[in-house]
Amino acid sequence: MSQRIGIYPGTFDPITLGHADIIRRGSKLVDKLIIGVTTNPSKNPMFGTDERLAMVEREVATLGLDNVEVVGFNALLVKFARKQGANVLIRGLRAVADFEYEYQMAGMNQQLDHSIETVFLMADVSLQPIASKLVKEIALFGGDITPFVSKAVCEDVIARVEQKGRLGDY
Question: Which sequence positions are flagged as catalytic?
Answer without folding.
Answer: 19, 43, 94, 132
